[in-house]
Each structure stands twice: as structure tokens, then as C-alpha cells.
Amino acid sequence: MENVTLLTVSIRDEYALISAFMRGLHESERELNSRTALWDDIEVAYMRHIIAMQEEYDGLCIVAYADGKPAGVIMGYVEEEDDSRFEEPAGDMLYISDGYVKPEYRRMGVYRMLNRTIEKHYTSRGIRRIYRFTLCANSGMRKLLEQEGYMATRVLYEKWL
Q1: Cβ(118)–Cβ(74) under 8 Å?
Q2: 98-125 as b/e: b if 16+ CB within 10 A
Q3: CB–CB of 57/79 below 8 Å?
Q4: Domains and their CATH numbers in the chain
Q5: What average pLDDT does the chain have?
Q6: pLDDT for 72-129, tens place per residue?
Q7: What would the DSSP string read from start to end of the chain?
Q8: Which tens digits make up the pLDDT trace of 51-63?
Q9: What is the pLDDT of residues 28-71, one digit of tens each?
Q10: Which residue, among 11, 13, 6, has the nearest Cα to 53 in the 3D structure?
């Protein structure tokens, strides 16, 4: 495996880098789901959203560098528990909203490193529940998540009219 370094970054300060990762994520998702929005159509609003989540909801964005080159990213933020949940109370939750590794760095453990690092950061601060979404067609990510102890608890069904 390459020499991988993980750095916490400010999305606002590293806008171009994070936007490039998000473009890659959206293009990858578009290959699996044709209804995924084009990045050029949503970039401004989505970047504004994740900047706000980082700054207002104890968010964390970590970039992986392999031999000094940007290889992957993960982003998550804290959601406060309220009384509208179906699940047993667990306190605040970590929502991992985005994660992406460039194709040339996949299957090298980069995403696993990013995921474990963000989990460790938040669990050391008392978070006991982590949730995330992935496309049903993304079998590689589903397999990785299950290997990391995640389990599917709900399936989202959509009908486009």
C-alpha cells in the first residue's frame, strides 16, 4: 500500500479539492443510479450544505493523501437525537454523509482508514450510533460496511412519477 496520510480539513478553505471529490462521488453514483443529479447542477447548493454541516453541527472532513496526492475523503457531522425516532434512545448520532476514494486508490484500504478514523474521533466523544446511506447497487460499499460492523436496518423504496 502507498504511504497514506490523513488530514482534517476545512471544507470552506479547501473548497476546490472537496468539490472535486464530490464531483467524483456524484459521477460514480450516477453510474449506479441515473437519477443522481449532475454535479454542475447542484455543486453550489451541496457545497454550501456540507460547509454549514461542518461549521454548525460539529462536522469533520478528512482527506487521505497517498504519497502526497489527494486519494479520498470522508465527511460526517453530528445530529442531535430527538423524540421522533423509532429506535431506542442512543444520544447524539454521527451521520457520515459523504465518502469517496478515487478509482486508482481503491482496494488499498484507504476508505477503511478514513472510516475508522472518523468513527474513532466521534466515539471518543461519546457518539454511540453511526448511520449512513449507500446505493443498493453499490455492492462493494455494502460489503465493506458489513465487514466494518454496519447492518442494513431500512431500505428506501422510490417511485418516480
Answers
A1: yes
A2: bbbbbeebeebebbebbbeebbeebeee
A3: yes
A4: 4-147 (3.40.630.30)
A5: 91
A6: 999 999 987 666 656 665 668 899 999 999 999 999 999 999 999 999 999 999 998 8
A7: ---EEEEEE-TTTTHHHHHHHHHHHHHHHHHH-TTSPPHHHHHHHHHHHHHHHHHHTT-EEEEEEETTEEEEEEEEEEE---TT-SSPP--SEEEEEEEEE-GGGTTTTHHHHHHHHHHHHHHTTT--EEEE---TT-HHHHHHHHHTT------------
A8: 999 999 999 999 9
A9: 999 999 999 999 999 999 999 999 999 999 999 999 999 999 99
A10: 11
Take residue 105 and report the three cell numbers written for it: 486508490
Which residue do the cell numbers 496526492 mark?
Answer: 69
| CA pair distance 78, 97, nearest whole angstrom | 10
CB atoms within 10 A of CB 6: 17
pTM higher than 0.85 = yes
